[in-house]
Amino acid sequence: MPDILKTIAARDPHETEFYQAVTEVLGSIKPVLDQNPQYRQAAVLDRITEPERIVTFRVPWLDDVGNVKVNRGFCIEMSSAIGPYKSGLRFHPSVNQSILKFLAFEQVFKNALTTLPLGGGAGGSDFDPKGKSDDEVMRFCHSFMTELYHHIGINTDIVAGDIGVGSREIGYLFGMYKKLSNSFTGALTGKGLNWGGSLIRAQAAGYGCVYFAAEMLATRDMSFDGLKCLLSGSGNVAQHTAEKLIELGAKVITLSDSSGYVHDPEGIDKEKLAYVKILKNIRRGRIQEYVEKYTGATYTATDALLDYHPLWSHRAACAFPCATQNEINEKDAYNLINNNIKLVCEGANMPCTPQAMNIFLDKPMLYGPGKAANAGGVAVSGLEMVQNSMRLNWLEEEVDSRLKIIMKQIHKTCLDAAEAYGTPGNYANGANITGFVKVVEAMLDQGVV
Ligand code: NDP
Ligand code: 2IT
Q1: Which of 7, 150, 259, 396 yields a CA-CA distance of 20 to 30 A from 382?
Q2: Residue of the nearest CA to atom 8 in ligand 2?
Q3: What is the pLDDT of residues 178-215, one digit of tens each?
Q4: Is 348 close to ligand 1, i.e. is its CB under 6 Å away?
Q5: Pick from 346, 373, 400: which residue ends a domain?
């Protein structure tokens, strides 16, 4: 076990997700370290795995009946070597320091891959927006921002959404940020279109994931036309992954939430997806309701006692995990392989366990790691920052074509690096090596800080 992993395990034994994310990157970069002894001399692994700053804070708020509630807020600033921290914010009851450190760590490499000057971080809270009224969410967001605003800014840390933080939450957070800082600036991305947001930002992670997957398929002379696809999740990333897949002629047959999943053998078409968007984004309902409207589909409730997720047992050519970390385990991976899966492309961050990932990497199938495949979201956040600085808005076609160029570039960079380091076709190695070298070179240029 490398020394740095021993140190992390000894220092923060409960941070299992962070340990997993670091282990995964370390698995790729040994040849880079061996070829560049100056990296080890400068202790880059010790530095890159220690956040530059962590702030935790109390978030008190009042519920609708006047009870005082308290949640814990986090701001994790991992690396500013190549630009100001650029962070997603997650509001989910499972949020803790380990989960946000893993997200911040992944974000550092992902942001380096985007070709934009963005450092990496993550933030959020164990607050659960599910089942809360709009007023409760607003009071929580306002309270959260009264502390977070001390730490963010256009040249410091620019925050956006992640699980549980969508356009509603960004609106409330931005409103309080603007009031406290007395300035209308782009310290948040994912803003509304008539107050500084960018066209295509909402779609970007999902569309970008499909653009990346299309590039992978093209290396085997394949396209999405007629391919069956399994998707998990039904939030921002899943919806827009499905939207682009449908547009490209694929047949999307599953969607899920934490309560269960729907299987629609006829395919979820444009009209059905429009229903899902209203159900999830406006009515804030559960995916189970899909089968009440579309009776040809079936719903299967999540069974915590099962050691696999039945969603991944359906026969399909492609799988897009778009919900959360570690949602595809070893058994799921074998189920996919036994059904002759051709491509797994990660819309979510770290959705495959290390065992599942190794199973995919050992096979001749295509495996697209999240830090490359879902980088479209943060890339368009970067483009939103550019537009805010210029005080103008690009047209939809302009942003979309830039997103396509960025995803194509990330795909090529990953392939080139994988090839250069002796593992052709291994996108995970390619992504880790490219991101690592870019960030570490900047760290060396800037000295011991
Ligand atoms: P949303 O909150 O919009 O949707 C999350 C979806 O995943 C929901 O369907 C949710 O179901 C499900 N989900 C969340 N937690 C769990 C869980 N523990 N078990 C099962 N299902 C779960 O989030 P996003 O779509 O934005 O994020 C999805 C993934 O994509 C995350 O991994 C995120 O980090 C990643 N990502 C997001 C980007 C963005 O710009 N938003 C960019 C790049 C990656 P339920 O409603 O029941 O909670
Ligand atoms: O995981 C991610 O890349 C995000 N949640 C998006 C972050 C961003 O700054 O847009």
Answers
A1: 150
A2: 378
A3: 999 999 998 999 999 999 999 999 999 999 999 999 99
A4: yes
A5: 373
433 lines ligand 1 (CB under 6 A): no
Pocket of ligand 1 contains residue 162 by CB under 6 Å? yes
Q: Quote the domain boundaries for residue 235.
A: 204-373
Q: What is the mean pLDDT of residues 246-255?
A: 98
Which tokens hold the place of 162? 């992640």
Q: Answer yes or no: is the C-beta of 234 below 6 A from any ligand 1 atom.
A: yes
167 touches 239 (CB < 8 A): no
Q: What is the 3-state secondary structure (H, E, C) of 19-61?
A: HHHHHHHHHHHHHHHHHCHHHHHCCHHHHHCCCCEEEEEEEEE
DSSP 3-state assignment of 262? Answer: strand
Residue 1: is its pLDDT beyond 80? no
Half-sphere CA count of 172, side-chain side, radius 13 A: 19
pLDDT above 90: residue 2: no
DSSP E strands in 205-357: the ranges are: 228-231, 251-252, 254-257, 260-263, 298-301, 318-320, 343-345
Structure tokens that stand for 310 in this block: 């039945």
Q: What is the mean pLDDT of residues 58-62?
A: 98
Taking only the tens place, the pLDDT of each residue in 105-125 is 999 999 999 999 999 999 999
> Encoding tokens for residue 93?
């009851």
Q: How far apart are the first and last CA of the chain?
A: 27
Please report whether residue 323 resides in a domain: yes
Name the closest-CA residue to atom 3, ligand 2: 378
**Main-chain phi, psi angles of 371, to 5 degrees:** -70, -15
Q: Tell whether 313 is covered by a domain.
A: yes
**Ligand sitting nearest the alpha carbon of 350:** 1
The answer on 230 and 369 residing in a single domain is yes
Q: Is residue 211 part of a domain?
A: yes
| CA neighbor of 160 nearest in space, from 379, 396, 407, 387 | 379
Q: Average pLDDT, stretch 219-232?
A: 98
High-pLDDT (> 70) share of the chain, %: 100
What residue's CA is closest to ligand 2, atom 1? 88
Protein residue whose Cα sits closest to atom 47 of ligand 1: 258
Residue 238 CA to ligand 1 center (angstroms) comes to 8
Q: What is the pLDDT of residue 206?
A: 99
Residue 122 to residue 143: CA distance in whole angstroms:
18
